[in-house]
Amino acid sequence: MCGFLAFRSQEITKTEQESFETFSYRGPDESRILKLEENVILAFHRLSIMDLSHDGMQPFVNSERDALVCNGEIYNYKQIQDTLLSSIKLRSKSDCEVILPLFKKFGLEKLCKNLDGEFAFVIWDSSKKTFLAARDQFGIRPLFYGLKKDDSSMAFSSEVKGLIGFCNEIKPFPPGHYYDGEKFVEFDSVYKVEISTELTKEDALHGIKQLLEQAVIKRMRSDAKVGYLLSGGLDSSLVCAIAARESTEKIKTFAVGINEDPIDAKYARVVADHIGSDHTEYLFSKSDLLETLDDLIYRLESFDITTIRASLGMDLICRHIKKTTDIKVLMTGECSDEMFGYKYTDFAPSAEEFQKEAKKRVKELYIYDVLRADRCISSNSLEARVPFSDKSFAKFVMSIPPKLKMNTTGHGKYLLRAAFDLEDYLPQSILFRQKAAFSDAVGHSSVDFLKTLADITITEEELASAPVKYPHCTPKTKESYLYRSIFERHYPGQSHLIKDIWLPNQEWENCKVSDPSARALPNYGKSGV
């Protein structure tokens, strides 16, 4: 992951400089602040992944003094170079460098629609004297904007903490949109894909397998070393199994758990043995949770319960990877549940309601699981790649008739499981395992410890005051109150950044629960044991 800041200023102030430094962990390899014109500042922290030489350092600036900063991976950059930019000489082998000449040749909308990847970028358009910006359709790469306190001009940053010192009205940049200098325009929307009523089950199975394989393979290309997060659940196991088949050498996989009851770590070992990976298992303690909680919430920029629970294990394994290996890229299994279904979507009252819920979850992914993966990985100076967010794969899955995706077999996400059941990708015990939610799967005792910590820390009087003190996303439990109080200490008045506390659909039968964990549902059964 890289990180950038873009704004107008005659001279960069001490506050702006300090704001830029708050997320330097996103790009520890090189940092640069460029004053492009008399009042245009572009600042960039680089994590070198493609073209490890200095040639790949940003901002990229052309002869007309247009400039680009981008946090992203453009997987079709070679095709763009060969077909659309064959007459243009580029200075580097960086995948992101194609963005600026493609913009100059075709304009912002066609540029965005031609990119296949995970990206957030800002362009300074010298002819129009304005900033332009865009973000990928899932919001895999973070981007925020705000209005400067001194002149109300728009500023952009990879993280909220980069703007909070000198901006008002900070908001997330909407995924699948570009900003043309005046307004936001939607150019891509996975959640709006129309259902293909002609698709049969066989078509669905073939498409899922083929497109997920392609999504993983294209994300394996890197000049820096790649590792794989392996939870032992279906999604990450499939990603690892595909990569292991395609790699010419053993892939490196990593699992995490709490030392008292590491639920998923034992399943991850089964997968690792099956696919022949070079596997590392990292177990943490309750004291690790206590020591990291405050700083983690600062880095997450969220107070959502399930986001924080799930982040603790992920952050600790990423820290271990950063400390003990030379890996810089991590493949992850996020974005699957939102399209194929959670445990609670077993209770969807109809196919229409299932699809409606999938659209909602896909649209809001950037607030929850995508945010978690980005911050846990990037704040440890690593890069996330997310095959399930692949544009072609995701649009195909969202086009599958929801009646085919609903749980009618006793196995959630049946289509995904069945698509890889024809060959020996995974053991049957893994392929058809009912997995626990990640926040529980690192070990039930980790969540129980957090609840106990909150019971000790937060008084009944404080919880009773929550509706008055926190009218937006009011904490309903002591655990939620604890997270919110830490968040407000770091980001006072910024709770609007999180739309709501993640919970199952409260309108459905069996889903009216106060805890986001799947353990609260009546169909949890043997999940995570």
Give a short overview.
The protein is of the alpha+beta class and 529 residues long.
Description:
The protein is 38% helix and 17% strand. The protein is globular, with a radius of gyration of 22 Å. The protein starts with a strand and ends in a 39-residue tail after the last helix. It has helices spanning 14-21, 77-83, 99-106, 108-114, 201-219, 234-246, 263-275, 286-300, 305-324, 337-340, 351-363, 369-378, 391-399, 402-405, 414-419, 428-431, 438-441, 444-457, 460-464, 466-469, 478-490, and strands at 3-8, 30-37, 40-46, 60-61, 67-74, 117-125, 130-135, 144-148, 154-157, 167-172, 177-179, 184-186, 226-229, 252-258, 278-284, 329-331, 383-385. It has 529 residues and is α+β, with helices and mostly antiparallel strands. Helix 9 packs parallel to helix 12 (369-378).
Key words describing this protein structure:
single chain; 529 residues; alpha+beta; six-stranded antiparallel beta sheet
What share of the residues does DSSP label as strand, in percent?
Answer: 15-25%
The end-to-end span amounts to 34 Å
**What's the total helix number?**
21
What would you report as the Rg, rounded to the nearest angstrom? Answer: 22 Å
In spatial order, strands of the major sheet run 2-3-1-9-8-10
SSE-based structural type: alpha+beta
Work out the number of β strands: 17
In percent, how helical is the residue content?
Answer: 25-40%
Average of per-residue pLDDT values: 94
- What profile does the largest beta sheet have? 6 strands, antiparallel
Uncertain runs are: none
Shape assignment:
globular
